[in-house]
Structures are given as structure tokens and as C-alpha cells.
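Hi Y.,

Following your request, here is the sequence exactly as I used it, all 420 residues.
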Amino acid sequence: MFRLAARSAKPLTALLSASRTFASSRCVRSERSPTSLDTFTEEEQLLRESVRRFAVDVVGPKVREMDEKEMMDPSIIKGLYEQGLMGIETSADHGGAECSFTSAIIAIEELAKIDPSVSVLCDVHNTLVNTVIRKYGNKEQQDKWLPQLAESKLGSFCLSEPASGSDAFALQTRAKKEGSNWVLNGSKMWITNSYEAEIFLIFANASLCLIDPSKGYKGITCFIATKDMGVQIAKKEEKLGIRASSTCTINFDDLKIPEENVLGGEGKGYKIAIEILNEGRIGIAAQMLGLAQGAFDKAVPYTFERKQFGQAIGSFQGMQFQMAQAAIDIETARLLTYNAARRKEEGLPFTKEAAMAKYWSSVVAQRVSGQAIEWAGGVGFTRETGIEKFWRDSKIGAIYEGTSNIQLQTIAKFLQKEYS
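Below is the corresponding structure, written out as C-alpha cells. Let me know if you'd prefer a different format.
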């Protein structure tokens, strides 16, 4: 089944090779002819079609089983690599597809239409792990780690701790320099991809071990570690939603990391994390957008098949109004998400726009997936249709990579600066 499906979903690099003779990875925008947010390059359109086929043919048949077992099927991760979806922005020299940031957002959205668990695995790997090394790693680090991440080894982004959630930089994980190594002690919590990952980006506070602890967050440093160095995968959480996506507690007990694995320089972890999370929020917005569309796509056709009182329930005005409003909500989430993505690509400020996209897409995902269950009635409440899974998966959107209240606070700060 997997092999047949994989043949129909050609690898991204193969699809893009021909189009690159005449298409750029970015939209060409004329000052005289502004384009809509529905304008995509040839490469981006090809990618959307390829990811959609992969999601439907390969991921789709395994969604329910993975959800019930609370485990990602290894063949899905292998398939993501075979399709070239684990190094979307990574350069071709490092084994990647060398596509635009918007291409990564497209892939995340399309995967989420079928399974948000697979989507977030791809999202964290691309928009957080790959991007951090690509932007802040030196040449030696890029040459060593990016090919591995693009070709076979899953990455994990380790920031959150038991006492460090929304206050992301109240880190207690300690890093102490010993000779040519750094020694880490502490724990991380709620870490996505951690069960399957082989490469970890770990944020630890070096200042706690220095004479001057007043440095606080200024001592936070990012380290690259591998599982075989002694990263301990502890408790695997049993969650309401995105069950196939692993979320674990990680322990470090005198974890030795060579000094050449310090990423971006000592004390630069705060800057790295704060900047990368702004980009990551666009990825979560895309995941929630895809989730809402996936629930909508499953439920709406049913309303025109199911008849009551002699007519399809989707033809009743009350139902039509609800579906129309949901379609509007999804479209506004899409516009916010792709606007933030394009602004990021064009080098424009995007922090406020990313917060808006992440907040609103999370609201829409929960609202639309909940309505989709009601539109399908009793059938929607069962696991048979898969609609109820979208609702369970939607709740995380208001929590990770910055809660909804944190997004609103971010937006409000920009408004205060603009109007005061």
C-alpha cells in the first residue's frame, strides 16, 4: 500500500527540478500589479499537489490506527523523508529542497487536513529545528547537521520545562563548562518529536553556574545534542489530541556536549528562541488552518447526503448559515496565515501578524471542528468518520508555541506602541 502510494506522490525534489528552469521559489511581485494572497509560484503549486496526494494516499489510511495506538508509524516518517518534506527550506547542497518559507507553510497545512499529528511533526522539524541551524549555525555545523536532518534524522526543539511554560525563559536546566565540553543537568517537558528524534536543540541556562547569576536569561545558550550522547526520554504523555505526535519529558544527567555544538554562541539562546518562535507560530497557524479545512471537508458533504424531513440537511437555511460562516472563518485564517508567511519571506516585520494568525487560526480550528461534529450528528460523535479527532486535535492550538493569551498580549503591545 505504502509503496504504491509513494509512487503516485513523487518526491518534492523531482517535481521541482523541471519547474526551476523557469520559476523562482518566490513570488515575483510587480509594484504596478499587486498580487493576491492566493498567488503561488509554480513550485509552490506543485508542492501543494504532491503533499496532498501523499497525505491522502499514505497518511490517510493510517490516521485512526496511529491515533488509537498513540504512536507515529515509522513508515510515515520515512515517507516524509522520501518525499523531500523534511528539508523544505534547506539548501540543495545540504540535501534539501531549497524552497520558500511559504512552501513549508503549504506542506504543514496540507498534512493537517488529513492528520494534524503528522503535520506538527513536519512543522517542528522544518520551521524550528532546521531553521535554527540554518540561520544561526556556522558553516561546519550546517554542513554536519542539515544533511542528516534533511535525509533521515528527526529533530526536536527542547525549550519548555516544568516551571517554564509561558514564561519560557525561566529555565532551570543548567549548563556548566568543563574543559572542552559543556555538562547539562535538568529536565525538559512537553517536547514534541522527542520519542522518535535523534537530534535535539537544547536550551540551557549557563548563567546559573557562573559567579554572576544576575545575567538571568542572558546566559541562555542553545546546544546541539544527539540521542546517543545520553539524552534520556522519560515520561511519554497521554494526550487529548494529536496523540500520534510524541510529547515527552526529557532528562539530562551530566549530559556532555562538545563545545563545537554550541549554536549561535554562548548566551545567544534567548535571541534564537524568541526570533524562531515568531516564525514557528506561523507554522502552528497553518496546522490549525489545515485542521479546520479538513474537518469542514469531511462534514459538509455528509450534510448533502443525509436527509431529514424529505430534504438534505445541508439545504436547511440554519445549516447553510453555519457553513457559510465557517467558510468565512477559514478564509480569514488563511489570509492571516499566508500574509504573515509572505511578510516573513519579504523581510518585513511579522511578529504581530504571526501572533494574529496563530491566535485566530486556533480559534477557528476549535470552532469549525466542533460545528462539524454537530453537522454530522450522532455519526460525527463516533470515531468512524474521524471528525471528532479534528476537534480533539484542535485544542492544542490555543496552548503550544505561545498560548492564546500570550498572542493577544503580543498584539496588544504593538497596538499600544502604535497608538500611545
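The mean pLDDT is 92.

Thanks again,
Q.
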